[in-house]
Design a protein that fits this description.
The protein is α/β, with parallel strands linked by helices. The chain has helices spanning about 30-45, 60-75, 95-105, 115-125, 140-150; strands at about 5-15, 55, 75-80, 135, 165-170, 175-180. It has one domain (about 5-180): Phosphoglycerate mutase-like (Rossmann fold, 3-Layer(aba) Sandwich), CATH 3.40.50.
Length: about 190
């Protein structure tokens, strides 16, 4: 069901994690990440309408990024597995860095079934949002949305910084990018 009312979607990349992707499957935020989340609260408080939904990836770093804003505004945070990090089934933690490096250079058509299913789930979920929504999520999730809207063949089309806000709008069945989050060059460490 598509809503005809325009919906603004805020895609927020989590703050800096306290461990690398191949060291911990679910790290929390580093001290720097906690400070970034506090700054994000100041940035978003001024921009939000009074009627919005908030969604978070189930991963700790995304939920911890939402916490300062949630504590300040008192909203419910809905946990949604759709917006979790890119799936890497069967890949040992120690090999995830090399696997992820390959994904950075992949085209969408080169993704394997688990990643394509995940990407399509993200896109379908964005299509059915009924009101303005904040989504606390991950680098690759944001790339799914941005690449799809831009009709890019590359899977990674930009590099959202920690706690950056990418703002998109859906009106009827059309999506547009209102503003890209802060960009930085990511290295998979």
């Amino acid at each position: 069901m598509t809503n005809n009312k325009p919906v603004t979607i805020y895609l927020i990349r989590h703050g800096e994690a306290n461990a690398a992707w191949d060291e911990d499957p679910d790290p929390g935020l580093s001290e720097k990440g906690k400070l970034q989340s506090e700054e994000l609260k100041k940035e978003l408080t001024q921009d939000l309408s009074s009627n919005f939904e908030a969604i978070s990836s189930p991963l700790l770093r995304a939920q911890e990024t939402a916490k300062p804003l949630k504590d300040s505004l008192g909203f419910d945070l809905n946990i949604n597995d759709t917006f979790a990090e890119i799936p890497s089934p069967g890949i040992p933690l120690s090999e995830r860095r090399d696997w992820l490096r390959g994904i950075f250079n992949a085209k969408v058509k080169e993704l394997e079934e688990p990643q394509l299913f995940w990407r399509n789930s993200i896109i379908e979920s964005l299509k059915v949002l009924q009101k303005d929504t904040i989504i606390f999520s991950h680098f690759m999730v944001i790339n799914c949305a941005v690449g799809w809207i831009k009709n890019s063949e590359k899977f990674v089309s930009f590099h959202p910084d920690n706690c950056s806000v990418t703002k998109i709008r859906r009106e009827k069945d059309e999506f547009e990018i209102l503003s890209m989050g802060r960009d930085f060059i990511t290295t998979v460490q």
